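testing teh design pipeline on a random one, pls ignore if ur not involved
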C-alpha cells in the first residue's frame, strides 16, 4: 500500500477510473459503482469522471486506520 500512496503523492494530474483500477488492482466497474454511491472520491470534467490523486491518497489513509478484523478470534461455526 505504501507504493500506491507514494505514486499518488507524486502524481500531479487527475486520473481516470481505469488508471485508478489498474493502480489499486481492482475492476474498473467496481470503482464506477463506488463513485456513483459516493464511497470513492471523484469529480467530473466535461461529463467525464476523474479522480484527484491527493483525495484518493487521503481516502486510502483514512480507510486504512480502521481496525483490521482478526478472523482467528471468531468462534467456530
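output:
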Amino acid at each position: 500500500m505504501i507504493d500506491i500512496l507514494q505514486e499518488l503523492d507524486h502524481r500531479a494530474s487527475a486520473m481516470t477510473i481505469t488508471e485508478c483500477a489498474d493502480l489499486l488492482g481492482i475492476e474498473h466497474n467496481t470503482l464506477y459503482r463506488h463513485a456513483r454511491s459516493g464511497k470513492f472520491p471523484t469529480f467530473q470534467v466535461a461529463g467525464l469522471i476523474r479522480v484527484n490523486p491527493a483525495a484518493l491518497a487521503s481516502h486510502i489513509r483514512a480507510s486504512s486506520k480502521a481496525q483490521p478484523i482478526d478472523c482467528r478470534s471468531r468462534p467456530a461455526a
